[in-house]
User: What shape does this take?
Amino acid sequence: MLILYDLKLKYKLFLVYLFCVFCPILIINLIFYHHMVTNVKAIQQNFYRQAAHRTISGIESELKTVTSLCNRISFDKTLYEMLDQEFPTDLAYVETYYNYFLNYLFINGESYRQINKAVLYTDNDTILHSGSVFRIDERIKSEGWLEQVIEDPEKNHLLYGETYHKSDNSIITPLYVVKVLNIYKGLNRYLKLIRFNLNTERLINIVTAEKLKGGILVVDQQGKLLFADHKQAPDWQLEDYLRKHKGQLVTEEIPTFEWTLISLIDQQEISKALQEPRNNIIMLTTISLLVASVIIVLISHSFYDRLNSLSEHVNSLDQKDCQQYTGPQGNDEIGILIKAFNKMVVKIRSLIHDVYEAKLEQSRIKLEKKQAELNALQSQMNP
Assistant: This one.
């Protein structure tokens, strides 16, 4: 604290302005802006999260319709009987195909908007390959999906095709739901499956319906990209994507199918939302600093100028006559100090005058005394 005693008043005033006005105003507005940025980001995240929930709800509704249909068909005993019977001739099968299978698969499959095609598979040798019923031969057995389904015959299997890009740069992965028909133990002479080729156009339309500028991705638990509303790089990897856009993503799980929906928040939307508040904060900060600075300058001048002038006047007392301070005084503490100083000057001048007069009187008396002595000597010498 002692160092403050040695600082000039103007530096003290500057420190008061810097730490009591400028810094507090700047820091408060920066904190306010930080909270505003946090709130805007939270609003954007909530908006994207709500959009993700709507997208997830639409996807789950589409796929649950198909899985429910699979479960319902798996209890159709008539279908089991038709697939389990041995047809004596090809004509007998063709008649059964047109009279039963074709209508059945349309009513219980392709009539649904979620399904592009419904196909039955069986290893019944008396069944011919047809548009919607296939005999499981060596070619089909060589396909990997059949072995995967047979390994776990109790569940509905969701299988993926080869991902491709559409002309609008969206990404689609063909999906298939496959169910082994094995409920009735007495009708299990042959392996029977039903497979639904899903209408993935409806799924990508659900993904792109929100029209988010940032983008939406759907990946499975292995990180495979299934759907996206924007084209991605050929060497796209989930880990790289998450690392690149860290802090800009909203992630929601689709637990029914072990998928994850990832929404990329558009940073330009945040910047646009913050532009007007940021300009307002800058304007308010500038106005606050200007007003405070003007007021402080005016107030500081009211005492700094008088103190500085009084200090210069005091320093000049040893160089000139002891004169009163003739500058502005006022009625504040500095004005009282100036008035007291002027009273002191008057008293000092009075004391100086009294001392000076006393010395003059003493000198006059001494002079008169010496003159009298001189006159007395002269009288003695010249009687």
Observations:
- The chain has a mean pLDDT of 83.
- Residues 28-270 form a domain with the Beta-Lactamase fold (CATH 3.30.450).
- The radius of gyration is 50 Å.
